[in-house]
């Protein structure tokens, strides 16, 4: 009503005299109907530091360290163990004055009766229960992860799985898995807002069968950034060629910026011996055996881009054979260096058609004419010592003895000589323990 009167009086000056006279009677009538209380109260509001800020900001003022202190290295051990939720266990209407408040703690109407405000008996154990509840607080711990779920370093996100991308229409991304490669805080300086803080995430996703993609996402919170990066990586899938479902098709050299990577094909069972980011990408792509040497800059984004460029530029054996117009033959240690023809061209070159400067070495061809520098291994400093010579002389009779024993047991089930089949008495003088136990049981 008071605001209504103020608005009317402000407009009086703009009206004509007749209109003012007519409205003045209305104002007098309205003033007669108003209560006798004053329109404006001179009482001051009870506001201070403790009822202006929420509980989180109040606790932060006690437990945290200022920005200047953080820059000087203070507050490294500050944790949330002392922060307690003082609202936990509190119930409206229950306290020092236990009251029933109709419409707040109880319904206004109970059956046909109207509930009235009532005083409840005091609870002497209420303070004791609250103190016990608050004593249990303060043990803030991260959820313990199993060794399989851990990332590159403990509970941090890089290296951890965050599930497949969100389904879009008919694309459900079944069989896909996404892993975080990088999660960092970035700042952007604005002229009007100052330093704007955001979180940047790099995620790679794949189906472990030659289909993979990576992308970067940014957000105010880590979850938002990872979700954006995960969904974007599902939209940027590329096909990667995998040889015999376990390794790359051939050795290759790849480069992005100042980062150089030499990748080598390895036999089955070798494993992934490479940078941790490359290993994570291989796990998502479906590569199980690989060796990669990173030279130059170890910028994570450059390593990811360089490795994906190398995977995309791979050539199948048929493409190499057609390009060189030569047969592609494999000699590997696992097959006893038995020649295996991997691919043949439609028309093969003759010896006269092969140029003198043509690269015929497969490894050099895959590295685009480059030759990997293999440094000479120098003998250790103690090689010329007399004590080391005596040690080698004593170990000459025992050299490879343990390995030979293991090979014989794996092949024949016992330690035996190569003359055992012709001379059965060429067996160890001591029988295996299993036979002795069987005889003792009988």
Automatic annotation (TrEMBL):
InterPro entries: Ribosomal_Su5_D2-typ_SF (IPR020568), Ribosomal_uS5 (IPR000851), Ribosomal_uS5_C (IPR005324), Ribosomal_uS5_N (IPR013810), Ribosomal_uS5m_N (IPR048584), Ribsml_uS5_D2-typ_fold_subgr (IPR014721). GO terms for cellular component: mitochondrial inner membrane; mitochondrial small ribosomal subunit. Keywords: Mitochondrion, Ribonucleoprotein, Ribosomal protein. One of its GO terms (biological process) is translation. It is found in: Mitochondrion. One of its GO terms (molecular function) is structural constituent of ribosome. Residues 176-240 form the S5 DRBM domain. Its main location: mitochondrion. Pfam families: Ribosomal_S5 (PF00333), Ribosomal_S5_C (PF03719), Ribosomal_uS5m_N (PF21251). Component of the mitochondrial ribosome small subunit (28S) which comprises a 12S rRNA and about 30 distinct proteins. Belongs to the universal ribosomal protein uS5 family. This is Small ribosomal subunit protein uS5m.
